[in-house]
Structure formats: structure tokens, C-alpha cells
């Protein structure tokens, strides 16, 4: 697994840039890709991201007896985890987390960015009552300006979650967004499948993927 430095601050856990991953990105980034192709390809990448994020959480020793009667000294991941999805696009990541950890608790945060000011506004939050005692996978496919991520992190910190107990899981990241998060919260870890070139004048990532939520849920405008 690759650890990359972005914009001179903080570190990011970047998925290995394999040919298989590039092939999945090629489908997702194609403006002509059908919704089935987009959902399937993004789901495969999200599964890799979540597996990588879980590997960053604490493990404890566990011994088991194998079918041939020998002892295997292995590990068991901490049960004190939860997912928190940033609505609406973050919902796309929940199914992959539940497939890996079926009993995991999942909270919701609704933050929307004003299309004119680009500033985030918190509308809704529903979180596990004991979230302050858990490690949190914060789920949002896009890290662009960092405004939404920062607002979501502040909600978690306000509920008593420790900064280093937060792993931000995101499909695409911009250097500007990574810098914004790590300058404010340097102990928050970020797991991503790609670091984009930059943001354009409208705060869209280049080369980008379009509006992930619209494409995933089929609410994008047909052209």
C-alpha cells in the first residue's frame, strides 16, 4: 500500500495504482458510461478503500485451533467501529462496508455546499450514542475543497470522537482538499484511490468524475 504526501502536509493512504484500478477508473470517468457500469466499477473500488481503511484500525491478538489441531496465533479487529456517511453520495459506500462488517453501526450527516458561496451547511446528523468510544470510518466519495469534510469532522469531534480515531474514506481527492483537512486536523487519516491534478475555477476536480451522487443514483441530467 502506498503512502503519499500531498501539498506538503500530512499523509494519505493511496491504493496501489494497478492496471486493474486504472481500468475501473477509466469506466467511472467516462462520461458515456452507463449507470450499471458506473455503480459496479465504483463499488469494486470502494470495497478496496474500506478494506484498506479497516487495516488502519486497532487489532488485538487472538488464538484459534486449526482443523488439524494446531494453534494459529492471529489477530482480531476491534469491534468498536462505526461508519458515518455524508449524505447523499456517502450512502453509496454503506453497502460495501456492511458487506465486510454486517453488524456495523452507521450514522448519517447531511451537509450541503452552497452553489454560490461554496460554503458547507449542516442540515442533519444522526450518530450512535456511544460514538465517542468508537473508531469512525467517515464515508464520502469526493474530497474537493475540503469544506464538507471539515464540517463533518467538526460534527464528530463535537460528539467526543478523538481526531486520530477518524479515518476519512474517499474515492477521489484533490491536493487542495487534502491540504485543508490536514492543516486543520493533522491526525485524521485519509484513504483514497486517486489524488487529482487540481480544482478548476468552479471547484470541480480535474480530470474528475462529475457529480458522483447524481451518476451513482441515476439523477444526472441525460444529454
UniProtKB/TrEMBL annotation:
Gene3D superfamilies per UniProt: 3.40.50.2020
Domain of life (superkingdom): Bacteria
Keywords: Glycosyltransferase, Transferase
Phosphoribosyltransferase domain boundaries: 16-219
Matching Pfam families: UPRTase
Molecular function per GO: glycosyltransferase activity
Matches recorded under InterPro entries: PRTase-like, PRTase_dom
NCBIfam families linked: PRK00129.1
Protein name listed in UniProt: Uracil phosphoribosyltransferase
Taxonomic placement: Bacteria, Bacillati, Actinomycetota, Actinomycetes, Streptosporangiales
Amino acid at each position: 500500500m502506498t503512502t503519499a504526501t500531498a501539498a506538503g502536509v500530512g499523509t494519505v493512504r493511496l491504493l496501489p495504482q494497478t492496471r486493474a484500478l486504472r481500468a475501473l477508473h477509466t469506466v467511472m470517468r467516462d462520461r458515456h458510461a452507463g449507470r450499471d457500469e458506473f455503480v459496479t466499477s465504483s463499488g469494486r473500488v470502494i470495497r478496496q478503500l474500506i478494506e484498506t481503511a479497516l487495516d488502519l484500525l486497532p487489532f488485538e491478538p487472538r488464538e484459534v485451533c486449526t482443523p488439524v489441531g494446531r494453534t494459529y496465533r492471529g489477530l482480531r479487529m476491534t469491534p468498536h467501529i462505526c461508519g458515518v456517511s455524508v449524505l447523499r453520495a456517502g450512502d453509496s459506500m454503506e453497502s460495501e462496508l456492511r458487506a465486510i462488517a454486517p453488524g456495523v453501526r452507521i450514522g448519517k450527516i447531511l451537509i450541503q455546499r452552497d452553489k454560490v458561496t461554496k460554503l458547507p451547511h449542516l442540515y442533519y446528523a444522526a450518530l450512535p450514542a456511544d460514538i465517542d468510544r468508537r473508531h469512525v470510518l467517515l464515508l464520502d466519495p469526493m474530497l474537493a475543497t475540503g469544506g464538507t469534510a471539515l464540517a463533518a469532522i467538526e460534527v464528530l469531534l463535537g460528539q467526543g470522537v478523538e481526531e486520530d480515531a477518524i479515518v476519512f474514506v474517499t474515492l477521489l481527492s484533490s491536493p487542495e482538499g487534502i491540504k485543508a483537512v490536514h492543516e486543520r486536523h493533522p491526525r485524521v487519516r485519509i484513504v483514497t484511490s486517486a489524488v487529482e491534478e487540481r480544482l478548476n475555477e468552479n471547484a470541480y476536480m480535474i480530470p474528475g468524475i462529475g457529480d458522483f451522487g447524481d451518476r451513482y443514483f441515476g439523477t444526472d441530467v441525460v444529454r
